Give the backbone structure.
Amino acid sequence: MKTTLTQFISYLEELASLHTDINHDPETHPTFIRFYEANDPAKAARNQIKHTPCIMVKDYDFHFEDNKSDNVHKVRDIEFLVIDKISQSSTKEDVYTIWERTEEIGDEFIMRMKDDKRNRRNNAVIHFDLNKVRGIPADITAGGLYATSYSIPVSSIRSNDPEPDKWTDL
């Protein structure tokens, strides 16, 4: 089954709506931001983050894997950030407290993805690989915003054969 980029981003937005700390509602409590809407993360954070904690889908890259099987896997590494805010007069301890909070929220997202895969609740995570998830604390450098950034591999199976209708000689 092929998972598209838009399917996975929609899935993340759904999780943001369902998670009680994020509580995303696009109309009344927007806490889900698509990074591609801006080129500068600090500017996007200042202009778009109205409520915290929130989720920001940052960017992605992809590669192909061929494990000598019948099908090639296209693997997208999609990055999302769990962002929270502290006051201007914060201490180092406050920063670590925020990082712990954002990490806890992000970890819940990861566990939910694993559970959704196991229970086949959403096809967007059917090829989710927990072993390749990476996380890192981040300073957004805008208005006391700190985050934990997660890189999630989302795999899609592709046929090894080119699409004949895309080629004039096939």
